[in-house]
Amino acid sequence: MARGGINKALVSNARETLISRGENPSIDAIRVELGNTGSKSTIHRYLREIEEEASARLDDETLLSQPIKELVGRLASVLRQEAQSLVEEHQTKHQNQVRSLTDRLQELENSLANTNNTLEAKERELKVVLSDLDASKASEETLKANASKANQANEKLQVLLAEKQAQNESLEEKHRHNREAMEHYRQSVKDQREQDQRKHEHQVQQLQAEIRALNQTLSVKQGDITQLNKDNGRLVAELGATQKTLAKIEDEQRKLTTNLDLKTEETDSLQTQLSELKDQSEEIDKLKKLNEELLAWKAEALVSIGKLETEISIKTDMMNRLLAEKSKTPEASE
After folding, report:
1. Cα(4)–Cα(6) distance, rounded to whole angstroms?
2. Taking the chain, what is the end-to-end CA distance rounded to the nearest angstrom?
3. 132-174 tens-digit pLDDT
4. pTM
5. Half-sphere exposure of 267 (CA within 13 A, CB side)
6. Range 229-245 average pLDDT
């Protein structure tokens, strides 16, 4: 329910007053116009009902006159034509803009692709330059290290050079002493060579004398060789006879070998038989052992039987005595 006497008519009057003044008939404005009375929900409900009634009146064509209807129709037709022309114009502009934007977009994409390609090429060049720079830095560091090593090596070489100079001076001194020693050695070698030459001449004379003696010995040896050749001929003849004899001996040896093979086969057969006999002998030994065991067992059995027979005889005698005593006992009782 509305509070403070607020009703639909008051709200409608306040709304029309605000519209006539050119103000927006909002809920707050109407409430102020009503003297800040009534709840906003009530004012909102009345406003909604009033606007629905006004809309229903405007939509009802029966409330409009014929000229107004024709005017509204013409206005609607003109508005539709203008709207259609505006729509077509805007569509044409839009299509042109779309084509322009598409072309521009394609140009931008091509430019972007070219830019990307250029950027990639620049990046590759940059990588190459950076790689070369790193290589240059590494080479520079290597050169610095090599220069440092070279300086150290130079210092060492300077020290070695000083040492070598001292060694050269020492070697020159030694070389001078060596030259003097060499001169002395050459003189001593010359003297030694002269002595060796004299010794050689003496040895040659001795060798010539020995050669003459050897020639004499050689003539004697040649006579001996002639005799040896004769002896060799005789030995060759004897060797031929010996070879014939050896051939006969080899034939006999082959025969003996054949006989030996036969004897070997017989020996193998005899060994086989001997092995069988050994097996039989082992079995006989086993049988002998068993026989001995049986004889021992038999002897033990005979002894046991003798003992049993003795015990049986003793027990039989005892039984006979007991029976005799038993038979005598009734007679005594009678």
Report:
1. 6
2. 164
3. 888 878 878 888 888 788 788 778 888 888 887 888 788 888 8
4. 0.23
5. 6
6. 79
SS (H, E, C) the chain: CCCCCCCHHHHHHHHHHHHHCCCCCCHHHHHHHCCCCCCHHHHHHHHHHHHHHHHHHHHCHHHCCHHHHHHHHHHHHHHHHHHHHHHHHHHHHHHHHHHHHHHHHHHHHHHHHHHHHHHHHHHHHHHHHHHHHHHHHHHHHHHHHHHHHHHHHHHHHHHHHHHHHHHHHHHHHHHHHHHHHHHHHHHHHHHHHHHHHHHHHHHHHHHHHHHHHHHHHHHHHHHHHHHHHHHHHHHHHHHHHHHHHHHHHHHHHHHHHHHHHHHHHHHHHHHHHHHHHHHHHHHHHHHHHHHHHHHHHHHHHHHHHHHHHHHHHHHHHHHHHHHHHHHHHHHHHC
- Give the pLDDT score at 44: 92
Q: Is the pLDDT of residue 2 over 50?
A: no
Domains of the chain by residue range? 1-63
Dihedral sign, Cα of residue 57, residue 59, residue 64, residue 68: positive
Are 63 and 57 in contact, with CB atoms under 8 Å apart? yes
Amino acid 45: pLDDT: 92
